[in-house]
Amino acid sequence: MKTGLIGAMREEILLLEHDIQNLKVHQYGARKFYEGTIGGKEVVMCLSGWGKVAAASTATTLINVFNVDQLVFIGMAGSLMENLQIGDIVVGDQLIQHDVDLSRLDGFHGIEPPFYKKFRFPVRQAAQRRALEAVKQFTYNLHDDKYPNINKQYRPKIHIGAIGTGDQFVASQKGKDKIVERHPELYCTEMEGAAIGQVAADYNVPCSVIRIISDNADEEAHSTFAKFLFEDISKISVEIARLMFV
Pick the catalytic residue: 35, 88, 215, 232? Predict the structure, then answer.
């Protein structure tokens, strides 16, 4: 199985380049694609950049050019639920574009929405299970002190639930409350996952999304996001990504 591995930022994923054997680097448009094997398993890794368009473009290239069999996204997200703490890990069971609102079209009878009426994409159980196994192995290794470069106090909880996607960095309680009001089932908010979910649905390719909580999507989000990014995220996300190829 060939995996298309995506991250939005360099800190989230590109350190894994050193693990790729038989590495070939390809340039398509603005993006570089790192192709090779990890643990004997085929991988094509790419830095997508922020937002739904960037994520969708990356996923489409991975499917059409590199013929990947599955898509995996790993990165950070803002918490939308009180029981999620910074550092906790969410494995998506569905991916929802929370900033799409077609409710005003409901009164126009006879109009058939093209492709999708609801921008809600379930994660296939097999893909979700593979992602969850990698995250569980990561937390197991943490308890066994197998990661000396990760703070020994870090003990994340694992959550399975809906991940929300929108083209906005949510950094206010008002903005957070607005999303939760429309989608109370969402565990966290980010900017890429459900766009990849839509492309995966278009091409009937399984995908999974793993998100590490970096902030609470409130007025403190900028500072906590930056602190988590530069101190922890590259260590955590890369270790989880490695375990997808064990």
Answer: 215
Q: What angle do CA 95, 96, 102 make, to 5 degrees?
A: 155
Q: What angle do CA 68, 71, 77 make, to 5 degrees?
A: 160
Confidence (pTM):
0.92
User: How many whole angstroms separate alpha carbon 158 and alpha carbon 148?
Assistant: 21
The tokens 């569905």 sit on which residue?
94
pLDDT digits (tens, 9 = 90+) for 146-201: 888 888 888 999 999 999 999 998 889 999 999 999 999 999 999 999 999 999 99
Residue matched to tokens 């649905």: 201
Q: How many residues does the chain have?
A: 246
∠172-177-182 over CA atoms, to 5°? 135
**Helix (H) or strand (E) run with residue 206 in it:** none
Q: Which residues face 161 on adjacent strands?
A: 92
- 12 catalytic per annotation: yes
Catalytic pick among 12, 35, 42, 232: 12
Residue 79: CB partners within 8 Å, gap ≥ 6?
85, 86, 88, 187, 188, 213, 215, 216, 217
Structure tokens, 209: 């999304």
What's the rounded Cα separation, in Å, for the pair 158 and 161? 10
Is beta strand 186-190 parallel, antiparallel or unpaired with respect to 158-165?
parallel
Helix axes 234-243, 125-143, angle to 10 degrees: 120
| Amino acid identity for residue 89 in this structure | I
Q: Is 215 a residue of the active site?
A: yes
